[in-house]
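The pair is quoted verbatim below.
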Amino acid sequence: MLESVITMANQSRLSVVSPQAEVLAEGSAANLSVIVLTYNEEANLPDCLESLRGLRCKLFVVDSGSTDRTIVLAEAHGATVSRHPFENYAAQRNWSQDSLPVETPWLLHLDADERLTPELVSEINRVLQQPPQHIAGFLLRKRTIFMGRWIRHGGHYPSFHLRLFRTGCGRCEDRLYDQHFVVDGRVTPLKSDYVDVVASKLSTWTLRHTRWAEMEAREMLSTDTGGRQVSPDIRGNPIQRRRWWRNTYSHGPLFVRAFLYWCYRYFLRLGFLDGREGLIFHFLQGFWFRFLVDALIYEKERVVLPSAKSQTH
């Protein structure tokens, strides 16, 4: 009996009616395309796609070589699936925009571990019915979920990201880490949240951040700022202000800046109110990750400096 129930549940999950088919069946033309990047995301993708239910959109999934059931699940939700080798997030997002048959006037980018709240689905549908002519993009409020807990403090909420914009008006920065979209025209924030589930397993989280630390170290050492970038501006929108603070941080002394940043987040910005999960998150993401970046920078500079000295003798 139990096996029958499990089988029926699995079949139901695979045969779920796609959010797009459900909306189009009502006769509403889609004016939004959603692009989701995936790689072995069978654990996260169903919740991501299910959160799009009710959104008037066409769904595209760009996969970079999954070996699990990611593609099967994407197709079961009515997605158009494309495959492209992964270089970095910026290259993958820009390739998606350049190569997919997007015909809608608006575009939304998501990752497989992100979900829209029902409130955000309703707000997007409402706003895109008659979008303001002077607005080229919308900032979305990110709600971070770590080990099952909403991280509300430490300056981590609300965190705004530019993910929704007019097709052809936005492009992802050519950066290895901390990429944002840059849009031609004015942007404005929406009121509702989307959810980012950043740690279903700590082992996965630390492996990703070890890889991202290497990218961030290379980014901070690089002098190449080719392509259009977010303009740092303490008086600008939330993304511009965050880039201004990031640039200010980059001028601080190695190792000391990581410790000061963690103290700022955990004590001055009340990160300790996020409980034990918050302690783990703010320490790992606010100190350990940043300290690892500095250690990698230190390692790379030690390799470069002796080589430079040897050439002078």
Confidence is low (pLDDT under 50) at residues 1-17, 21-27. Residues 7 and 61 are 26 Å apart (CA to CA).
